[in-house]
Amino acid sequence: MFGFGDKTNSLTMNEPVPESLLDTGAQGVISRPLDRVDGPLKVSGTATYAAEYAVPGLVHGVLVGAKIGHGKVLAIDVEAAKRVPGVIDVVVDFDTFIRNAQQGGEEGAPTQGVKQVDYFGQIVAIVLADTYEAAREAALSLPVEYEYKAGTYDFEAHKDEAETPPRGLIPPHYSQGDPDTTYDAAPVKLDVTYVTPSQNSAAMEPHASIAMWEDDALTLYGAYQMPTSDASQLAKSLGVSVSKVRIISRYIGGGFGSKLGIAPESVAAAVAAKQLGRPVKAVMMRQQVFEATPRRSNTEQRIRLGCDADGRIVSFVHDSLVANLPGESFFEPVGIGSHSLYCGENRRINHDMVRLNLGLTGSMRAPGEAVGMVGVECAIDELAEQMGMDPIELRRINDPLKDPEKDVPFSSRMLTRALDEGARRFGWNQRNATPGSRREGEWLVGIGVAAATRNNQLQKSSAKIELKPDGTAVVSSAMTDIGTGSYTIMAQIAAEVLGLPVERIVMKLGDTNDPPAAGSGGSWGAASAGSAVYLAAEALREQLAKAMEVDPGDLTLKDGEAIGGNRRRSIAELVGDGMEATGEIVPGKQEKQFTQASYGAHFAEVGVNVVTGEVRVRRMLGVFAAGRVLNAKTARSQCLGGMTFGIGCALTEDLIHDPRNGKLVNRDLAEYHVPVNADVPQLEVHFLDERDIHANPIHAKGIGELGISGAAPAVVNAIYNACGVRVRNLPVTCDKLLAGLPAL
Amino acid sequence: MKWTINGRSYEAEVDVRTTLLDLAREHLGLTGSKKGCDHGQCGACTMLVGGRRINACLSLAVMHQDDEIVTIEGLGQPGNLHPLQDAFVRHDGYQCGYCTPGQICSAVGMLDEVKKGWPSHVSADLTEVALDDAEIGERMSGNLCRCAAYPNIVDAIREVAGVDDREPVLETAREIGA
């Protein structure tokens, strides 16, 4: 899918790139806290999301979910649905419909076939009508006959049947040295088990697709994070060539992982549109989003830390149990952060899988670290307390100088600096290590800390820039902006390198007709697509230098003018009839030769109500080092979002399945509690100045998921410091605290 | 049936079950109001009806033929933004933008409620309401934002309400090494 001939400036990251045009650019827009370029559209309701395209002849489709947890669909009474006035048809395609969403980045189709029901809410049909009301009525009342089978719905009851999942982003099992013997022999030991519940991304925009066929070519307006690979998944699911599938995702109302791969509404809409010969819109109801799009797996994590009398870890063991549907290879990589966070010559990081008839588990914001750090960072807090040591000091002692598993250095690592800077800013020295020692009226107040780390990834991505004779530049890529700020930071990169005001950059994202990109996921978006823009701009800069007849090194581009060789000319003039170039970034040896991650530290202050057990987050600070910050405003917002996800993880978010039939009990936004405005104080974010020359030519690393990684354990540790109750089963709700609170 | 939305008259044939939200989005081309849950749980559909904020997904279109309805499109458009829309842009009071129209309509309605002296659950004084962070947070908690722009939303509202007495939270690019 890649390859653009001679005009492509392609860079494979085999060598570090110490010099960046972003450091020498004269425009002065990179890193500035500019307002989002798409802001006015978003605040005025004129940004167009997937379900909002005015398509003539549109048919409304409402999906039908199975009302059993395991079994088989025997019959669907299509005629009953058709008796509802306005209903056109019910499309049932047991073979083509997808059983569950696909994981992000896969090129192939997800598991297909829906006659067999493997989880409650699995999409089995789509009702089509001229109006939404008719389609909904018929869908909600559609008679479906089932054959019931016994299912496995209870994680606790099936833990003993856990199996080793196939290799994912990390191997499921890893061992080094002799972790058990060294643990047993260690003078200081901690053995604790932490449990985190299943969670849902709960993006505000429900999954939605509008499918339109023209002859044998499909155009799908979809709410998707990774259009390039999603188009491939959709094509494979439908049995058509990928060249015949175009996905358009200009604005996406949040994703957080749930829109990485195609979800059931896309295939259902496409199949129905084909059968009807009319465009079909399918928007998931919120309950269906909960039931039939990916959820984060619940986890059970046993952490064993053995250390010497000085606090140096000699044995680091992180054994996790996770869950997924039968036949699915994805496992929540709980220990991904554990591989390189702390010292420990003897290590084991294992993941085992419990197969359950519950909805698909997949990547939700910071898969792995978001929940894995809960276990590790709370365990570190416990170990520090056991040793009578400051938890920051314990982390400092165990901050490794090189990767503790591979004999390679870190590309950049500011963990201890982030902890120190955060301690200074937050007033860590005010902390009383004895829990329950600070009381304000009904409230016990405490503070907690946790490290933040998130692995850094670069993904093959490309972008094109056209310099127009009017002195504007059009940047296009199948990259997306899911709220992260891609539109803005990509415009800033182009503006900086090309010496143009940001207002003269026209951004086109989210269309697979444009150069392919990895999209938004794994915090790689800005670095990957941003590097592609950078490389395209670098190539154009060389073309401009040539037109100017100067060496690129002697060329200064600023405010639409080129300066070099004692001459000054407008870029518009140099462009002639127009110039264009494509940039492409490809991961290379640097990611093997250096362990790459972003780091930080979270600090939280909470109040625990002694009467009710209610927990309020009163203050929170995140200090982060993630390479170059491309836009100080949008980067900060990403961190605010991550930290708030951490608050939800610590205190409220908990998907509950009925152990009798696998039905999701709290499948809406009233019952699944994401943090609301009143739950979140004025969070503070501070960035450390950093460049990562091993990561990419723009020296930026992922930031969207760093803010969540470690946020929840900071809150949980603060709760312990406040009231002395150590809750190891998240979320920390009132009922789990009450018994341990002091008598009134 | 006829409706007056953003000062303009609209006409459409709708089902008696059609919500005010679906009327706008599916029949009138006013897609600025968003559907996040269709159950009055998220606030993305917030509109102003007779000056008061309501969840348009919980109200039927047929109930509103004599009402003055304002949606996000009617508050302001690019180039001529409402002060709250403008403040949301400058304070980055959004990320993905999906809850944003509802947040802004809600904030407009909320500020009017405060102006009328309506207390909330967190008001210390029931007769005189001071619009601090806690008041704003409480009154805006019917509008979920999963991207969690809450601190920025609070800052944007404070500014427009004229209680912006804080130091700016954003560090300059220079401080972060630009």
UniProtKB/TrEMBL annotation, chain A:
SUPFAM superfamilies: CO dehydrogenase molybdoprotein N-domain-like (SSF54665), Molybdenum cofactor-binding domain (SSF56003). SMART domains: Ald_Xan_dh_C. Pfam families: Ald_Xan_dh_C, MoCoBD_1, MoCoBD_2. Residues 44-150 form the Aldehyde oxidase/xanthine dehydrogenase a/b hammerhead domain. This is Xanthine dehydrogenase family protein molybdopterin-binding subunit. Gene3D superfamilies: Aldehyde oxidase/xanthine dehydrogenase, a/b hammerhead (3.90.1170.50), Aldehyde oxidase/xanthine dehydrogenase, molybdopterin binding domain (3.30.365.10). InterPro entries: Ald_Oxase/Xan_DH_a/b (IPR000674), Ald_Oxase/Xan_DH_a/b_sf (IPR036856), Ald_Oxase/xanthine_DH-like (IPR016208), AldOxase/xan_DH_MoCoBD1 (IPR008274), AldOxase/xan_DH_MoCoBD2 (IPR046867), AldOxase/xan_DH_Mopterin-bd_sf (IPR037165). Signal peptide: none annotated.
From TrEMBL, chain B:
This is 2Fe-2S iron-sulfur cluster-binding protein. Keywords: Iron, Metal-binding, Oxidoreductase. Gene3D superfamilies: 3.10.20.30, [2Fe-2S]-binding domain. The keyword Nuclease does not apply. Residues 1-75 form the 2Fe-2S ferredoxin-type domain. The keyword Iron applies. SUPFAM superfamilies: 2Fe-2S ferredoxin-like, CO dehydrogenase ISP C-domain like. Pfam families: Fer2 (PF00111), Fer2_2 (PF01799). The lineage of its organism: Bacteria, Pseudomonadati, Pseudomonadota, Alphaproteobacteria, Sphingomonadales.
